[in-house]
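Final report, Chapter 2: Outcomes

The project's central promise was a pipeline that accepts a single protein chain and returns its three-dimensional structure in a standardized token representation, suitable for archiving and comparison. That pipeline is now operational. To close this chapter, we reproduce one record exactly as it appears in the project archive, with the input sequence first and the structure output second.
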Amino acid sequence: MIARWIILYNFPGGEQKAKRQSERVLIYGAGSAGRQLATALYHSEEFLSIAYVDDDENLSGLDVNGLRVYTSSEITALVERYDVDSILLAIPSASRVRRQSVVDSLSNLQIRILTLPGLSDLAGGKVTISDVREIDIADLLGREEVKPHQTLLDRCIRNQNVLITGAGGSIGSELCRQIIAQQPTTVVIYELTEFALYSIERELRLILPEDIQLIPILGNVLDKALLEQVMNGYAIDTVYHAAAYKHVPLVEANILSGIRNNLLGTWYTAEAAINCGVKNFVLISTDKAVRPTNVMGASKRFAELVLQGLALREKDTSAIRFAMVRFGNVLGSSGSVIPLFKQQIQDGGPVTVTHPEITRYFMTIPEAACLVLQAGSMGCSGDVFVLDMGEPVKIKSLAKKMINLSGHSVKDDANPDGEIEIVFPVYVTVKNSMKSC
């Protein structure tokens, strides 16, 4: 043991001496994944494992693979004693609620948190150093994804011809991926932006089974003649209408373009679907259509009313079924606050929040798309479905948590020496305007 200590820690070529400049980490979880991770880190020059932390008090004080196991209540002392740089969460089997609870307990340490993906994402159940990644923002939401019903997924897709408008967007592209997994006969991806269409087509070609036909169409939803040509030409059974302008400030600055695309584009696509004998038409709507306070929300609500009017008009003459699905913010979409906050934190701040008390509902893109596919198979023509997005999240608290989990401190009145400040530019402007009045 003395010889081992001399060689590894003091000999000029010793492995641990070479790793003294590595990132010092605690491994949260002394189970199978944690032990595999410790073994992988032992041979890594990037990380130096200090100890395990585990909630099981029966493991406290044990040495596993040469590392001592401590209880979670000792984390703060360990961070200070060993000058820990990061904490690696090695609890892939834990539920999202449990992971969120652990993340909450660590957020005040102002230390970087890394994690392993869930068990389903670990190929063969073997943990490698490449599996370590930044914490998934979904772990901050504390809600479990709704399990899909396969019957509902199959009803409008399996062995049918499907058209997705706005296929290159955040929701549209995820709809394409999940629709292909349900074994349709033909998938037509309809997109206005050339690069977006090229990107999603190239991605889908890599996962496309040989028996599914993929047709890229570069077109505008305002082009009713092209829509009818495509729907007739490929005998479309189901349309998922995801094409829309959804960025509230941009639509406010371009009102006519927003209304033409969101309202008239939906109307023309729906009329084309009626004329071509389409069976199912699903509109991707938004929670901003509920008592709308902006042009984007009003245009989407108007589009819903148009479809409900068409459903009444066609109830005796056409077999088409219209469905509308509303949901809120999706994580990682273009326009979500999460990528913006990440970039602002990387740039050193400040992080901008619209209002100190603003709250939002969040959902992951895959879950939202999966629920859209299921909702489109339910109900009667003209029904509006509202997805249950869990509890609302306070944006200020989310920003603070993201700053702390990135290893930085929040600069505010309570901590004037912090690194990154949270500012409220719109709120301050309105407040000052009210004072001047």
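Archive annotation: The longest strand covers residues 47-54.
This record, like all others produced under the grant, will remain available to the consortium after the project formally closes.
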